[in-house]
Amino acid sequence: MSSESITVHLVGDSTMAEKDPEERPETGWGTPFAEYVDESVTVENYARNGRSTRTFLEEGRWDPVVENLSDGDYVFVQFGHNDEVPSKEQYTPPEAFVANLGKFVEETRERGANPVLLTPIARRHFDDEGRLEDTHQEYAALTRDVAQDRDVPLIDADERSRALLRELGTEESKSLYLHLSPGEHVNYPDGIADDTHFSREGARRMAELVLDGIEELDLELAARVVRDEE
Q1: Which residues make Cβ contacts (< 8 Å) with residue 141, sequence separation at least 6?
Q2: Per-residue pLDDT of the chain (230 residues; tens, 9 = 90+)
Q3: Which of 74, 84, 147, 150 is a plausible cystine mate for 139, CB 3.0–4.6 Å?
Q4: What is the DSSP code (8-state) at residue 228?
Q5: Is 77:116 a contact under the CB 8 Å cutoff?
Q6: How far apart are CA 76 and CA 58, in angstroms?
Q7: Which of 218-229 are b and which e, b meaning 16 or more Cβ less than 10 Å from the residue's Cβ?
Q8: Prior bond to 25 cis, omega within 30?
């Protein structure tokens, strides 16, 4: 085990965020992620439902992240779900999205910490012929571009999650998202079919995809990952 303590700061939207009791069993992947690191790592989850890069900054949510950064810490940044939808109040035009990601990267590095960019995790949208639709194409590509231009480690969660969804197929993949029948859970008495947000199992599988990315990038953090023995 690594002896020097570090913190992983998670910055993003509802797909990463902690959930209130009344939202469960909806689960952000940041919750199980925190269970996969050893005791030398603290995970601070700053992600919030409904945020884009723009609103996260405008609401002052980035400020405490920067203030709490120390040498050797990590900042995982994953946005796009809300930035990319022009009809949403949280919409962020492409140029501003790129600039905001650059701000997160630059200010993380100024504090001696390590930025990691993540593309947004796929929505579960299959067409009538069972083909998975690429719902994040533009903003995932923008995130990849920023990572390349600024030499930032990238975990392509969009690509990884789409591969998982294609592997599982139309029906089996429902278990990863918030699909509940009427009466199945007290928080959703009428049931719900949500193809953006995750079930507990889905959040765990998505966290494991992030862990795969950490290990493939050979980040120092990888030495502090603890996987359950199969």
Answers
A1: none
A2: 446 999 999 999 999 999 999 999 999 999 999 999 999 999 999 999 999 999 999 999 999 999 999 999 999 999 999 999 999 999 999 999 999 999 999 999 999 999 999 999 999 999 998 999 998 999 999 999 999 999 999 999 999 999 999 999 999 999 999 999 999 999 999 999 999 999 999 999 999 999 999 999 999 999 999 987 54
A3: 84
A4: P
A5: yes
A6: 19
A7: ebebeebbeeee
A8: yes
Kindly tell me the sign of the dihedral angle through the C-alpha atoms of 122, 77, 212, 43: negative
Residue 66, token pair as written in the block: 């920067």
Q: Which domains does the chain have, with CATH numbers?
A: 6-224 (3.40.50.1110)
Token pair of 180 as six digits: 């509940």
Q: Return the amino acid letter for 103.
A: K
Please list, in sequence order, all residues whose beta carbon lies within 8 angstroms of the beta carbon of residue 59, skipping any fewer than 6 positions away: 51
Cβ of 230: how many Cβ atoms within 10 Å?
3
Terminal CA-CA length for the chain: 20
**Cβ-contact 202, 172 below 8 angstroms:** no
Predicted TM-score of the model (pTM): 0.96
User: Which residue's structure tokens are 């609103």?
Assistant: 55
Orientation of helix 137-149 relative to helix 94-110, angle to 10°: 40
183, two tokens: 């009466």
